[in-house]
Protein backbone atom coordinates (compact mmCIF):
# COMPACT_ATOMS: atom_id res chain seq x y z
CA UNK A 1 0.00 0.00 0.00
CA UNK A 2 1.03 3.53 -0.85
CA UNK A 3 2.14 5.91 1.91
CA UNK A 4 1.86 9.21 0.06
CA UNK A 5 -1.05 11.51 0.76
CA UNK A 6 -2.84 13.14 -2.13
CA UNK A 7 -5.12 16.11 -1.21
CA UNK A 8 -8.80 15.33 -1.57
CA UNK A 9 -9.12 18.17 -4.04
CA UNK A 10 -6.06 18.32 -6.26
CA UNK A 11 -5.48 21.64 -8.08
CA UNK A 12 -5.83 21.62 -11.85
CA UNK A 13 -2.63 20.49 -13.56
CA UNK A 14 -2.01 23.93 -15.11
CA UNK A 15 -2.01 25.42 -11.61
CA UNK A 16 0.47 22.78 -10.37
CA UNK A 17 2.71 23.51 -13.33
CA UNK A 18 2.57 27.29 -12.79
CA UNK A 19 3.35 26.88 -9.10
CA UNK A 20 6.33 24.65 -9.90
CA UNK A 21 7.64 27.19 -12.40
CA UNK A 22 7.22 29.88 -9.76
CA UNK A 23 9.18 27.75 -7.29
CA UNK A 24 12.12 27.73 -9.73
CA UNK A 25 12.16 31.46 -10.53
CA UNK A 26 12.67 34.60 -8.48
CA UNK A 27 14.93 34.79 -5.44
CA UNK A 28 16.24 31.28 -4.68
CA UNK A 29 14.29 28.10 -5.10
CA UNK A 30 11.15 27.36 -3.14
CA UNK A 31 11.93 23.77 -2.08
CA UNK A 32 8.92 23.59 0.20
CA UNK A 33 6.55 24.33 -2.66
CA UNK A 34 8.20 21.67 -4.83
CA UNK A 35 7.70 19.09 -2.09
CA UNK A 36 4.14 20.25 -1.39
CA UNK A 37 3.23 19.59 -4.98
CA UNK A 38 5.30 16.65 -6.24
CA UNK A 39 5.40 14.54 -3.06
CA UNK A 40 1.60 14.69 -2.89
CA UNK A 41 0.74 13.56 -6.41
CA UNK A 42 0.54 9.95 -7.56
CA UNK A 43 2.41 8.53 -10.57
CA UNK A 44 -0.41 9.22 -13.02
CA UNK A 45 -0.74 12.83 -11.79
CA UNK A 46 3.03 13.43 -11.92
CA UNK A 47 3.05 12.12 -15.47
CA UNK A 48 0.45 14.66 -16.57
CA UNK A 49 2.30 17.41 -14.69
CA UNK A 50 5.51 16.55 -16.52
CA UNK A 51 3.80 16.47 -19.92
CA UNK A 52 2.00 19.76 -19.31
CA UNK A 53 5.19 21.38 -18.01
CA UNK A 54 7.10 20.33 -21.13
CA UNK A 55 4.27 21.57 -23.36
CA UNK A 56 4.10 24.92 -21.56
CA UNK A 57 7.76 25.77 -21.01
CA UNK A 58 9.49 23.67 -23.68
CA UNK A 59 11.70 22.00 -21.10
CA UNK A 60 11.56 18.63 -19.35
CA UNK A 61 10.57 19.15 -15.72
CA UNK A 62 13.43 16.81 -14.75
CA UNK A 63 15.90 19.23 -16.33
CA UNK A 64 14.47 22.23 -14.51
CA UNK A 65 14.62 20.32 -11.22
CA UNK A 66 18.18 19.27 -11.93
CA UNK A 67 19.20 22.90 -12.47
CA UNK A 68 17.56 24.13 -9.27
CA UNK A 69 18.25 21.36 -6.77
CA UNK A 70 21.34 19.61 -5.50
CA UNK A 71 22.71 16.61 -3.63
CA UNK A 72 20.49 14.06 -1.91
CA UNK A 73 17.40 16.23 -2.18
CA UNK A 74 17.90 16.54 -5.94
CA UNK A 75 18.25 12.77 -6.36
CA UNK A 76 15.16 12.10 -4.26
CA UNK A 77 12.99 14.57 -6.18
CA UNK A 78 14.27 13.43 -9.58
CA UNK A 79 13.77 9.73 -8.90
CA UNK A 80 10.35 10.38 -7.44
CA UNK A 81 9.21 12.53 -10.35
CA UNK A 82 10.13 9.92 -12.95
CA UNK A 83 7.58 7.47 -14.24
CA UNK A 84 8.10 4.17 -12.32
CA UNK A 85 9.17 2.21 -15.43
CA UNK A 86 11.54 4.98 -16.51
CA UNK A 87 12.93 5.12 -12.97
CA UNK A 88 13.65 1.38 -12.93
CA UNK A 89 15.32 1.67 -16.34
CA UNK A 90 17.38 4.63 -15.09
CA UNK A 91 18.46 2.82 -11.92
CA UNK A 92 19.48 -0.32 -13.80
CA UNK A 93 21.41 1.68 -16.36
CA UNK A 94 23.17 3.60 -13.60
CA UNK A 95 24.00 0.30 -11.88
CA UNK A 96 25.54 -1.18 -15.04
CA UNK A 97 27.95 1.74 -15.13
CA UNK A 98 29.07 1.51 -11.53
CA UNK A 99 31.14 -0.87 -9.49
CA UNK A 100 30.01 -4.44 -9.12
CA UNK A 101 28.52 -3.64 -5.71
CA UNK A 102 25.68 -2.13 -7.69
CA UNK A 103 24.68 -5.64 -8.81
CA UNK A 104 22.47 -5.45 -5.75
CA UNK A 105 20.32 -2.79 -7.41
CA UNK A 106 19.84 -4.89 -10.54
CA UNK A 107 18.98 -7.94 -8.48
CA UNK A 108 16.53 -5.95 -6.35
CA UNK A 109 14.66 -4.41 -9.28
CA UNK A 110 14.52 -7.62 -11.33
CA UNK A 111 13.21 -9.75 -8.50
CA UNK A 112 10.78 -7.46 -6.67
CA UNK A 113 8.88 -6.10 -9.69
CA UNK A 114 5.92 -7.94 -11.22
CA UNK A 115 6.53 -9.47 -14.66
CA UNK A 116 4.49 -6.69 -16.19
CA UNK A 117 6.35 -3.91 -14.39
CA UNK A 118 9.69 -5.43 -15.34
CA UNK A 119 8.49 -5.55 -18.95
CA UNK A 120 7.56 -1.85 -18.78
CA UNK A 121 11.05 -1.11 -17.45
CA UNK A 122 12.54 -3.04 -20.38
CA UNK A 123 10.46 -1.03 -22.84
CA UNK A 124 11.45 2.24 -21.14
CA UNK A 125 15.09 1.10 -21.36
CA UNK A 126 14.79 0.47 -25.10
CA UNK A 127 13.22 3.88 -25.61
CA UNK A 128 15.72 5.81 -23.53
CA UNK A 129 19.02 3.99 -23.99
CA UNK A 130 18.49 2.42 -27.43
CA UNK A 131 19.56 -0.99 -26.18
CA UNK A 132 18.27 -3.71 -23.90
CA UNK A 133 18.63 -4.24 -20.17
CA UNK A 134 19.73 -7.80 -20.95
CA UNK A 135 22.72 -6.79 -23.06
CA UNK A 136 23.92 -4.13 -20.63
CA UNK A 137 23.61 -6.39 -17.61
CA UNK A 138 25.34 -9.25 -19.47
CA UNK A 139 28.12 -6.91 -20.57
CA UNK A 140 28.54 -5.47 -17.07
CA UNK A 141 28.81 -8.80 -15.27
CA UNK A 142 30.79 -12.00 -15.53
CA UNK A 143 31.14 -15.46 -14.03
CA UNK A 144 28.57 -16.47 -11.45
CA UNK A 145 27.06 -13.00 -11.22
CA UNK A 146 26.30 -13.01 -14.92
CA UNK A 147 24.84 -16.49 -14.55
CA UNK A 148 22.52 -15.16 -11.85
CA UNK A 149 21.65 -11.66 -13.04
CA UNK A 150 21.07 -12.14 -16.76
CA UNK A 151 18.29 -14.72 -16.38
CA UNK A 152 16.91 -12.69 -13.49
CA UNK A 153 16.39 -9.58 -15.63
CA UNK A 154 15.28 -11.67 -18.63
CA UNK A 155 12.61 -14.06 -17.39
CA UNK A 156 8.95 -13.26 -17.85
CA UNK A 157 7.73 -15.21 -14.84
CA UNK A 158 4.30 -16.77 -14.58
CA UNK A 159 2.35 -15.02 -11.82
CA UNK A 160 -0.66 -17.22 -11.19
CA UNK A 161 -1.36 -18.90 -7.86
CA UNK A 162 -1.12 -22.50 -9.19
CA UNK A 163 1.37 -24.70 -7.39
CA UNK A 164 2.63 -28.13 -8.41
CA UNK A 165 3.45 -29.93 -5.15
CA UNK A 166 5.25 -32.86 -6.80
CA UNK A 167 7.53 -30.41 -8.53
CA UNK A 168 8.01 -28.43 -5.30
CA UNK A 169 9.20 -31.58 -3.54
CA UNK A 170 11.56 -32.68 -6.27
CA UNK A 171 13.03 -29.22 -6.67
CA UNK A 172 13.45 -28.74 -2.92
CA UNK A 173 15.54 -31.90 -3.04
CA UNK A 174 17.63 -30.58 -5.93
CA UNK A 175 18.26 -27.34 -4.04
CA UNK A 176 19.18 -29.17 -0.85
CA UNK A 177 21.50 -31.55 -2.67
CA UNK A 178 23.40 -28.70 -4.32
CA UNK A 179 23.63 -26.69 -1.12
CA UNK A 180 24.98 -29.74 0.73
CA UNK A 181 27.56 -30.20 -2.01
CA UNK A 182 28.33 -26.45 -1.95
CA UNK A 183 27.60 -26.29 -5.70
CA UNK A 184 25.66 -23.09 -5.18
CA UNK A 185 26.10 -21.98 -8.79
CA UNK A 186 24.80 -25.24 -10.22
CA UNK A 187 22.69 -24.85 -13.36
CA UNK A 188 19.67 -26.38 -11.66
CA UNK A 189 19.82 -24.00 -8.69
CA UNK A 190 19.90 -21.05 -11.07
CA UNK A 191 17.17 -22.56 -13.24
CA UNK A 192 14.79 -23.09 -10.33
CA UNK A 193 15.30 -19.66 -8.77
CA UNK A 194 15.27 -17.79 -12.07
CA UNK A 195 12.33 -19.36 -13.87
CA UNK A 196 9.73 -20.65 -11.41
CA UNK A 197 6.76 -18.50 -10.43
CA UNK A 198 6.92 -16.83 -7.03
CA UNK A 199 4.05 -19.01 -5.78
CA UNK A 200 5.79 -22.18 -6.95
CA UNK A 201 9.10 -21.09 -5.46
CA UNK A 202 7.41 -20.37 -2.17
CA UNK A 203 5.97 -23.89 -2.07
CA UNK A 204 9.39 -25.34 -2.89
CA UNK A 205 11.10 -23.35 -0.14
CA UNK A 206 8.42 -24.21 2.42
CA UNK A 207 8.93 -27.84 1.60
CA UNK A 208 12.70 -27.34 1.91
CA UNK A 209 12.22 -25.90 5.38
CA UNK A 210 9.87 -28.71 6.50
CA UNK A 211 11.90 -31.51 5.02
CA UNK A 212 15.44 -30.44 5.81
CA UNK A 213 14.95 -28.54 9.06
CA UNK A 214 16.34 -25.15 8.08
CA UNK A 215 15.14 -22.23 6.03
CA UNK A 216 17.13 -22.26 2.80
CA UNK A 217 18.67 -18.86 3.52
CA UNK A 218 20.12 -20.22 6.73
CA UNK A 219 21.79 -23.04 4.83
CA UNK A 220 23.06 -20.50 2.34
CA UNK A 221 24.95 -18.67 5.07
CA UNK A 222 27.81 -21.20 5.02
CA UNK A 223 30.28 -18.46 4.17
CA UNK A 224 28.93 -15.00 5.14
CA UNK A 225 31.77 -13.29 3.23
CA UNK A 226 30.98 -14.94 -0.10
CA UNK A 227 29.42 -12.23 -2.32
CA UNK A 228 27.74 -14.69 -4.64
CA UNK A 229 26.08 -16.55 -1.77
CA UNK A 230 24.89 -13.24 -0.39
CA UNK A 231 23.41 -12.36 -3.81
CA UNK A 232 21.57 -15.70 -3.92
CA UNK A 233 20.17 -15.07 -0.42
CA UNK A 234 19.05 -11.58 -1.40
CA UNK A 235 17.40 -12.88 -4.55
CA UNK A 236 15.44 -15.43 -2.55
CA UNK A 237 14.44 -12.76 -0.05
CA UNK A 238 13.33 -10.38 -2.81
CA UNK A 239 11.31 -13.09 -4.53
CA UNK A 240 9.57 -14.43 -1.44
CA UNK A 241 9.45 -11.63 1.18
CA UNK A 242 10.13 -8.31 -0.52
CA UNK A 243 8.98 -6.22 2.47
CA UNK A 244 11.51 -8.00 4.69
CA UNK A 245 14.21 -7.40 2.14
CA UNK A 246 13.40 -3.70 1.92
CA UNK A 247 13.22 -3.38 5.71
CA UNK A 248 16.75 -4.75 5.88
CA UNK A 249 17.96 -2.39 3.15
CA UNK A 250 16.54 0.57 5.07
CA UNK A 251 17.94 -0.66 8.37
CA UNK A 252 21.40 -1.09 6.90
CA UNK A 253 21.25 2.27 5.11
CA UNK A 254 20.20 4.10 8.29
CA UNK A 255 22.47 2.25 10.75
CA UNK A 256 25.53 2.64 8.60
CA UNK A 257 28.04 5.19 9.88
CA UNK A 258 27.21 8.18 7.71
CA UNK A 259 23.90 6.88 6.32
CA UNK A 260 23.74 5.33 2.85
CA UNK A 261 21.59 7.99 1.15
CA UNK A 262 21.96 6.29 -2.20
CA UNK A 263 20.10 3.21 -0.95
CA UNK A 264 17.73 5.14 1.31
CA UNK A 265 16.54 7.35 -1.54
CA UNK A 266 16.15 4.41 -3.88
CA UNK A 267 14.07 2.33 -1.50
CA UNK A 268 11.83 5.23 -0.44
CA UNK A 269 11.16 6.55 -3.94
CA UNK A 270 10.59 3.15 -5.54
CA UNK A 271 8.41 1.67 -2.79
CA UNK A 272 6.35 4.67 -1.54
CA UNK A 273 3.53 3.96 -3.95
CA UNK A 274 3.84 0.18 -3.80
CA UNK A 275 4.35 -1.52 -0.43
CA UNK A 276 5.88 1.11 1.89
CA UNK A 277 3.06 0.56 4.36
CA UNK A 278 4.13 -3.07 4.93
CA UNK A 279 7.79 -2.11 4.92
CA UNK A 280 7.11 0.44 7.70
CA UNK A 281 5.32 -2.25 9.71
CA UNK A 282 8.27 -4.61 9.23
CA UNK A 283 10.66 -1.84 10.21
CA UNK A 284 8.87 -1.10 13.44
CA UNK A 285 8.61 -4.80 14.31
CA UNK A 286 12.32 -5.33 13.78
CA UNK A 287 13.72 -2.07 15.23
CA UNK A 288 11.12 -0.92 17.80
CA UNK A 289 11.48 2.56 16.30
CA UNK A 290 9.08 3.93 13.68
CA UNK A 291 10.75 4.41 10.30
CA UNK A 292 9.92 8.12 10.16
CA UNK A 293 11.68 8.75 13.49
CA UNK A 294 14.71 6.80 12.31
CA UNK A 295 14.89 8.73 9.05
CA UNK A 296 14.33 12.08 10.79
CA UNK A 297 17.21 11.32 13.13
CA UNK A 298 19.61 10.49 10.33
CA UNK A 299 18.76 13.07 7.67
CA UNK A 300 18.03 16.78 7.57
CA UNK A 301 16.70 19.76 5.61
CA UNK A 302 14.65 19.42 2.45
CA UNK A 303 15.90 15.88 1.95
CA UNK A 304 14.37 14.83 5.26
CA UNK A 305 11.12 16.67 4.52
CA UNK A 306 10.87 14.98 1.12
CA UNK A 307 11.47 11.45 2.45
CA UNK A 308 9.04 11.94 5.33
CA UNK A 309 6.37 13.23 2.94
CA UNK A 310 6.81 10.08 0.83
CA UNK A 311 6.62 7.59 3.68
CA UNK A 312 3.70 9.38 5.35
CA UNK A 313 5.06 11.22 8.36
CA UNK A 314 3.35 10.71 11.68
CA UNK A 315 1.11 7.79 10.83
CA UNK A 316 3.61 5.04 11.45
CA UNK B 1 4.64 -10.25 -47.01
CA UNK B 2 1.59 -12.44 -46.64
CA UNK B 3 0.75 -15.01 -49.30
CA UNK B 4 -2.86 -15.70 -48.41
CA UNK B 5 -5.65 -14.21 -50.51
CA UNK B 6 -8.63 -12.67 -48.80
CA UNK B 7 -11.69 -12.07 -51.03
CA UNK B 8 -12.35 -8.41 -51.73
CA UNK B 9 -15.79 -8.76 -50.15
CA UNK B 10 -15.61 -11.03 -47.14
CA UNK B 11 -18.95 -12.55 -46.00
CA UNK B 12 -20.28 -11.40 -42.63
CA UNK B 13 -18.80 -13.40 -39.77
CA UNK B 14 -22.13 -15.02 -38.90
CA UNK B 15 -22.32 -16.39 -42.44
CA UNK B 16 -18.75 -17.77 -42.20
CA UNK B 17 -19.62 -19.42 -38.92
CA UNK B 18 -22.84 -20.95 -40.27
CA UNK B 19 -21.02 -22.28 -43.32
CA UNK B 20 -18.34 -23.84 -41.12
CA UNK B 21 -20.97 -25.49 -38.96
CA UNK B 22 -22.62 -26.79 -42.11
CA UNK B 23 -19.30 -28.21 -43.27
CA UNK B 24 -19.10 -30.28 -40.07
CA UNK B 25 -22.63 -31.66 -40.14
CA UNK B 26 -24.56 -33.83 -42.54
CA UNK B 27 -23.00 -36.59 -44.62
CA UNK B 28 -19.21 -36.47 -44.15
CA UNK B 29 -17.18 -33.34 -43.71
CA UNK B 30 -16.92 -30.69 -46.39
CA UNK B 31 -13.16 -30.11 -46.32
CA UNK B 32 -13.23 -27.87 -49.38
CA UNK B 33 -15.62 -25.47 -47.65
CA UNK B 34 -13.42 -25.37 -44.54
CA UNK B 35 -10.39 -24.46 -46.67
CA UNK B 36 -12.36 -21.94 -48.72
CA UNK B 37 -13.26 -20.07 -45.56
CA UNK B 38 -10.38 -20.44 -43.11
CA UNK B 39 -7.45 -20.34 -45.53
CA UNK B 40 -8.76 -17.10 -46.95
CA UNK B 41 -9.22 -15.09 -43.76
CA UNK B 42 -6.45 -13.19 -41.99
CA UNK B 43 -5.54 -13.60 -38.32
CA UNK B 44 -7.91 -10.87 -37.12
CA UNK B 45 -10.79 -12.32 -39.14
CA UNK B 46 -10.13 -15.87 -37.93
CA UNK B 47 -10.10 -14.59 -34.38
CA UNK B 48 -13.58 -13.09 -34.76
CA UNK B 49 -14.80 -16.27 -36.48
CA UNK B 50 -13.57 -18.35 -33.55
CA UNK B 51 -15.16 -16.06 -30.97
CA UNK B 52 -18.46 -15.95 -32.84
CA UNK B 53 -18.42 -19.73 -33.33
CA UNK B 54 -17.87 -20.31 -29.61
CA UNK B 55 -20.63 -17.81 -28.76
CA UNK B 56 -23.07 -19.43 -31.19
CA UNK B 57 -22.43 -23.17 -30.69
CA UNK B 58 -20.88 -23.24 -27.22
CA UNK B 59 -17.82 -25.08 -28.49
CA UNK B 60 -14.32 -23.96 -29.43
CA UNK B 61 -13.92 -24.07 -33.20
CA UNK B 62 -10.61 -25.87 -32.66
CA UNK B 63 -12.43 -28.70 -30.92
CA UNK B 64 -14.98 -29.05 -33.72
CA UNK B 65 -12.17 -29.12 -36.27
CA UNK B 66 -10.30 -31.71 -34.25
CA UNK B 67 -13.35 -33.95 -34.21
CA UNK B 68 -13.94 -33.68 -37.94
CA UNK B 69 -10.45 -33.72 -39.43
CA UNK B 70 -7.47 -36.02 -39.22
CA UNK B 71 -3.76 -36.43 -39.84
CA UNK B 72 -1.67 -33.78 -41.59
CA UNK B 73 -4.70 -31.87 -42.82
CA UNK B 74 -6.03 -31.64 -39.26
CA UNK B 75 -2.74 -30.30 -37.95
CA UNK B 76 -2.46 -27.74 -40.74
CA UNK B 77 -6.00 -26.42 -40.22
CA UNK B 78 -5.64 -26.34 -36.40
CA UNK B 79 -2.31 -24.53 -36.41
CA UNK B 80 -3.55 -22.08 -39.01
CA UNK B 81 -6.79 -21.33 -37.16
CA UNK B 82 -5.00 -20.49 -33.91
CA UNK B 83 -4.08 -16.95 -33.01
CA UNK B 84 -0.37 -16.49 -33.93
CA UNK B 85 0.71 -15.96 -30.29
CA UNK B 86 -1.32 -18.95 -29.12
CA UNK B 87 0.15 -21.00 -31.96
CA UNK B 88 3.71 -20.14 -30.94
CA UNK B 89 2.90 -20.99 -27.34
CA UNK B 90 1.37 -24.29 -28.43
CA UNK B 91 4.36 -25.22 -30.62
CA UNK B 92 6.85 -24.42 -27.87
CA UNK B 93 4.88 -26.39 -25.31
CA UNK B 94 4.67 -29.33 -27.69
CA UNK B 95 8.42 -29.11 -28.29
CA UNK B 96 9.21 -29.17 -24.56
CA UNK B 97 7.38 -32.49 -24.34
CA UNK B 98 9.14 -34.18 -27.23
CA UNK B 99 12.62 -35.46 -27.92
CA UNK B 100 15.51 -33.06 -27.86
CA UNK B 101 15.41 -32.83 -31.64
CA UNK B 102 12.50 -30.49 -31.08
CA UNK B 103 14.91 -27.94 -29.62
CA UNK B 104 15.02 -26.72 -33.19
CA UNK B 105 11.40 -25.54 -32.94
CA UNK B 106 12.09 -23.57 -29.76
CA UNK B 107 15.18 -22.02 -31.27
CA UNK B 108 13.29 -21.11 -34.44
CA UNK B 109 10.38 -19.45 -32.71
CA UNK B 110 12.50 -17.56 -30.18
CA UNK B 111 14.88 -16.14 -32.74
CA UNK B 112 12.65 -15.34 -35.71
CA UNK B 113 9.84 -13.56 -33.86
CA UNK B 114 10.00 -9.87 -33.01
CA UNK B 115 10.44 -9.01 -29.32
CA UNK B 116 6.81 -8.00 -29.19
CA UNK B 117 5.54 -11.19 -30.85
CA UNK B 118 7.67 -13.32 -28.54
CA UNK B 119 6.21 -11.43 -25.59
CA UNK B 120 2.68 -12.14 -26.86
CA UNK B 121 3.61 -15.83 -27.10
CA UNK B 122 4.84 -15.71 -23.49
CA UNK B 123 1.58 -14.15 -22.36
CA UNK B 124 -0.42 -16.73 -24.31
CA UNK B 125 1.70 -19.45 -22.66
CA UNK B 126 0.94 -18.10 -19.17
CA UNK B 127 -2.76 -17.99 -19.97
CA UNK B 128 -2.97 -21.46 -21.48
CA UNK B 129 -0.43 -23.54 -19.59
CA UNK B 130 -0.35 -21.69 -16.24
CA UNK B 131 3.44 -21.52 -16.30
CA UNK B 132 6.17 -19.75 -18.24
CA UNK B 133 7.97 -20.68 -21.44
CA UNK B 134 11.23 -20.04 -19.61
CA UNK B 135 10.63 -22.62 -16.89
CA UNK B 136 9.45 -25.31 -19.31
CA UNK B 137 12.35 -24.77 -21.68
CA UNK B 138 14.85 -24.73 -18.80
CA UNK B 139 13.32 -27.91 -17.39
CA UNK B 140 13.31 -29.63 -20.78
CA UNK B 141 16.96 -28.93 -21.64
CA UNK B 142 20.35 -29.31 -20.04
CA UNK B 143 24.01 -28.52 -20.57
CA UNK B 144 24.92 -26.40 -23.57
CA UNK B 145 21.43 -26.54 -25.03
CA UNK B 146 19.98 -25.04 -21.86
CA UNK B 147 22.70 -22.41 -21.92
CA UNK B 148 21.64 -21.47 -25.45
CA UNK B 149 17.88 -21.88 -25.40
CA UNK B 150 16.88 -20.36 -22.06
CA UNK B 151 18.38 -16.92 -22.75
CA UNK B 152 17.07 -17.16 -26.31
CA UNK B 153 13.45 -17.50 -25.18
CA UNK B 154 13.97 -15.00 -22.34
CA UNK B 155 15.62 -11.93 -23.84
CA UNK B 156 13.54 -8.92 -24.77
CA UNK B 157 15.87 -7.69 -27.52
CA UNK B 158 16.21 -4.08 -28.54
CA UNK B 159 14.91 -3.66 -32.10
CA UNK B 160 16.09 -0.21 -33.17
CA UNK B 161 18.45 0.34 -36.10
CA UNK B 162 21.29 1.90 -34.03
CA UNK B 163 24.64 0.19 -34.39
CA UNK B 164 27.75 0.69 -32.27
CA UNK B 165 30.68 -0.01 -34.62
CA UNK B 166 33.33 -0.06 -31.89
CA UNK B 167 31.33 -2.70 -30.08
CA UNK B 168 30.80 -4.63 -33.33
CA UNK B 169 34.56 -4.78 -33.87
CA UNK B 170 35.41 -5.83 -30.34
CA UNK B 171 32.67 -8.46 -30.25
CA UNK B 172 33.61 -9.86 -33.68
CA UNK B 173 37.07 -10.39 -32.20
CA UNK B 174 35.65 -12.15 -29.14
CA UNK B 175 33.59 -14.45 -31.36
CA UNK B 176 36.56 -15.22 -33.61
CA UNK B 177 38.82 -15.90 -30.67
CA UNK B 178 36.39 -18.40 -29.13
CA UNK B 179 35.72 -20.11 -32.44
CA UNK B 180 39.48 -20.49 -33.05
CA UNK B 181 39.84 -21.99 -29.59
CA UNK B 182 36.79 -24.20 -30.21
CA UNK B 183 35.19 -22.79 -27.03
CA UNK B 184 31.87 -22.49 -28.83
CA UNK B 185 29.86 -22.56 -25.62
CA UNK B 186 31.86 -19.75 -23.99
CA UNK B 187 29.79 -17.35 -21.89
CA UNK B 188 30.71 -14.43 -24.12
CA UNK B 189 29.63 -16.18 -27.32
CA UNK B 190 26.26 -16.94 -25.75
CA UNK B 191 26.00 -13.42 -24.30
CA UNK B 192 26.63 -11.73 -27.65
CA UNK B 193 24.27 -13.92 -29.66
CA UNK B 194 21.54 -13.93 -27.03
CA UNK B 195 21.37 -10.29 -26.00
CA UNK B 196 22.46 -7.99 -28.85
CA UNK B 197 19.88 -6.46 -31.16
CA UNK B 198 19.59 -8.02 -34.61
CA UNK B 199 20.99 -4.86 -36.22
CA UNK B 200 23.99 -4.85 -33.89
CA UNK B 201 24.60 -8.56 -34.42
CA UNK B 202 24.47 -8.07 -38.15
CA UNK B 203 27.15 -5.37 -37.94
CA UNK B 204 29.29 -7.64 -35.76
CA UNK B 205 28.97 -10.57 -38.16
CA UNK B 206 29.69 -8.40 -41.21
CA UNK B 207 32.81 -7.20 -39.48
CA UNK B 208 33.70 -10.80 -38.65
CA UNK B 209 33.40 -11.71 -42.31
CA UNK B 210 35.48 -8.74 -43.50
CA UNK B 211 38.16 -9.08 -40.88
CA UNK B 212 38.62 -12.82 -40.67
CA UNK B 213 37.86 -13.86 -44.24
CA UNK B 214 34.98 -16.26 -43.62
CA UNK B 215 31.31 -15.96 -42.75
CA UNK B 216 30.94 -17.02 -39.11
CA UNK B 217 28.66 -19.92 -40.03
CA UNK B 218 31.40 -21.33 -42.23
CA UNK B 219 33.83 -21.27 -39.32
CA UNK B 220 31.16 -22.89 -37.16
CA UNK B 221 31.08 -25.91 -39.48
CA UNK B 222 34.23 -27.40 -37.93
CA UNK B 223 32.31 -30.51 -36.94
CA UNK B 224 29.14 -30.95 -39.02
CA UNK B 225 27.94 -33.72 -36.70
CA UNK B 226 28.04 -31.63 -33.53
CA UNK B 227 24.42 -30.88 -32.61
CA UNK B 228 25.28 -27.88 -30.48
CA UNK B 229 27.32 -26.27 -33.27
CA UNK B 230 24.45 -26.87 -35.63
CA UNK B 231 22.07 -25.17 -33.18
CA UNK B 232 24.39 -22.16 -32.96
CA UNK B 233 24.52 -21.92 -36.75
CA UNK B 234 20.74 -22.16 -36.98
CA UNK B 235 20.32 -19.47 -34.33
CA UNK B 236 22.59 -17.13 -36.26
CA UNK B 237 20.71 -17.87 -39.46
CA UNK B 238 17.33 -17.25 -37.80
CA UNK B 239 18.52 -13.98 -36.30
CA UNK B 240 20.14 -12.56 -39.39
CA UNK B 241 18.46 -14.17 -42.47
CA UNK B 242 15.19 -15.77 -41.40
CA UNK B 243 13.93 -16.26 -44.98
CA UNK B 244 17.09 -18.25 -45.84
CA UNK B 245 16.60 -20.33 -42.70
CA UNK B 246 12.96 -21.09 -43.57
CA UNK B 247 13.86 -21.87 -47.20
CA UNK B 248 16.29 -24.49 -45.91
CA UNK B 249 13.72 -25.92 -43.50
CA UNK B 250 11.23 -26.30 -46.38
CA UNK B 251 13.88 -27.77 -48.69
CA UNK B 252 14.91 -30.33 -46.11
CA UNK B 253 11.30 -31.17 -45.23
CA UNK B 254 10.37 -31.69 -48.90
CA UNK B 255 13.54 -33.49 -50.03
CA UNK B 256 13.51 -35.89 -47.13
CA UNK B 257 12.51 -39.42 -48.02
CA UNK B 258 8.90 -39.45 -46.95
CA UNK B 259 8.49 -35.67 -46.49
CA UNK B 260 8.67 -34.13 -43.01
CA UNK B 261 5.07 -32.94 -42.73
CA UNK B 262 5.59 -31.84 -39.16
CA UNK B 263 8.13 -29.20 -40.26
CA UNK B 264 6.37 -28.38 -43.52
CA UNK B 265 3.08 -27.62 -41.78
CA UNK B 266 4.80 -25.55 -39.10
CA UNK B 267 6.73 -23.38 -41.52
CA UNK B 268 3.79 -22.81 -43.86
CA UNK B 269 1.24 -22.00 -41.14
CA UNK B 270 3.55 -19.75 -39.11
CA UNK B 271 5.04 -17.79 -42.02
CA UNK B 272 2.11 -17.49 -44.51
CA UNK B 273 1.03 -14.17 -43.05
CA UNK B 274 4.55 -12.93 -42.28
CA UNK B 275 7.30 -13.43 -44.85
CA UNK B 276 6.23 -16.36 -47.04
CA UNK B 277 6.58 -14.18 -50.13
CA UNK B 278 10.35 -13.77 -49.51
CA UNK B 279 10.68 -17.41 -48.50
CA UNK B 280 9.13 -18.44 -51.82
CA UNK B 281 11.56 -16.19 -53.70
CA UNK B 282 14.47 -17.74 -51.79
CA UNK B 283 13.12 -21.19 -52.49
CA UNK B 284 12.91 -20.62 -56.21
CA UNK B 285 16.41 -19.07 -56.30
CA UNK B 286 17.91 -22.04 -54.47
CA UNK B 287 15.97 -24.90 -56.06
CA UNK B 288 14.93 -23.65 -59.54
CA UNK B 289 11.48 -25.06 -58.79
CA UNK B 290 8.62 -22.92 -57.45
CA UNK B 291 7.64 -23.86 -53.91
CA UNK B 292 4.03 -24.61 -54.85
CA UNK B 293 5.15 -27.14 -57.49
CA UNK B 294 7.48 -28.79 -54.98
CA UNK B 295 4.76 -29.02 -52.35
CA UNK B 296 2.19 -30.28 -54.85
CA UNK B 297 4.58 -33.04 -55.92
CA UNK B 298 5.17 -34.22 -52.36
CA UNK B 299 1.74 -33.93 -50.76
CA UNK B 300 -1.81 -34.75 -51.71
CA UNK B 301 -5.51 -34.37 -51.01
CA UNK B 302 -6.92 -31.76 -48.68
CA UNK B 303 -3.55 -31.30 -47.03
CA UNK B 304 -2.03 -30.23 -50.35
CA UNK B 305 -4.98 -27.95 -51.12
CA UNK B 306 -4.67 -26.29 -47.71
CA UNK B 307 -0.92 -25.65 -47.96
CA UNK B 308 -1.21 -24.32 -51.51
CA UNK B 309 -4.00 -21.97 -50.47
CA UNK B 310 -1.76 -20.61 -47.69
CA UNK B 311 1.31 -20.05 -49.84
CA UNK B 312 -0.68 -18.53 -52.71
CA UNK B 313 -0.89 -21.14 -55.45
CA UNK B 314 0.03 -20.11 -58.96
CA UNK B 315 1.61 -16.75 -58.27
CA UNK B 316 5.15 -17.96 -57.45
UniProtKB/TrEMBL annotation, chains A, B:
Keywords for this protein: Annexin, Calcium, Calcium/phospholipid-binding, Metal-binding, Repeat
Molecular function terms from GO: calcium ion binding; calcium-dependent phospholipid binding; phosphatidylserine binding
This protein's GO CC annotations: cytoplasm; plasma membrane
Domain of life where this protein originates: Eukaryota
Binding site for Ca(2+) 1: 24, 26, 28, 68, 254, 256, 258, 296, 299, 304
A Pfam family reported for this protein in Swiss-Prot or TrEMBL: Annexin
GO terms (BP aspect): response to cold; response to heat; response to salt stress; response to water deprivation
Chain residues that bind Ca(2+) 3: 298
Designated name of the protein: Annexin
Native species: Aquilegia coerulea
Upper lineage: Eukaryota, Viridiplantae, Streptophyta, Embryophyta, Tracheophyta
Amino acid sequence: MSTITVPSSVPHVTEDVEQLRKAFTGWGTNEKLIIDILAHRNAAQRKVIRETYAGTYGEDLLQSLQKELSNDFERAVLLWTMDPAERDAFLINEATKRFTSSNQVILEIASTRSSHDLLLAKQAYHARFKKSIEEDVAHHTNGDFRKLLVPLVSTYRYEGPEVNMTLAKSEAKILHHNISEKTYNHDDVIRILMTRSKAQLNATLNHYNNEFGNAINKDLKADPKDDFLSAVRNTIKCLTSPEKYFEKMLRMAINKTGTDEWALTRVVTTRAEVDMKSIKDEYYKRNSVPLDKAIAKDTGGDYETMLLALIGHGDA
